[in-house]
Task: structure prediction
Amino acid sequence: MAVELKRTLAGVVVPDTEIVRKALEYAGKIYEPYLFNHVMRSWLFAASLAKIQNIDHDEEVVALGTLLHDVTLNTSFRDRAASRSKGPILRDASRWKPGWSASGRNLSGIV
Result:
């Protein structure tokens, strides 16, 4: 899905939508600095790779998937109950179904 609102981070053009901004803000709050830097590099690498290889993809799904892929590695997510208490970021999980088996464990309390 092509996203109209864009911004450039470290020379990489990425979506700048409300959901991506919320995920970025959330990631900045919950991750320790080294882990936040890791997920940011993952996002920018995935976006760059998709562009270089001309891979059709949903930019928001890639952004959220990479920004939140290590969400359970934070000390505030020691069990499933803790992750459920953080509240939903996504209201419609239908766009996540193709990759759900790979990422469902990490996103179970968020989606």
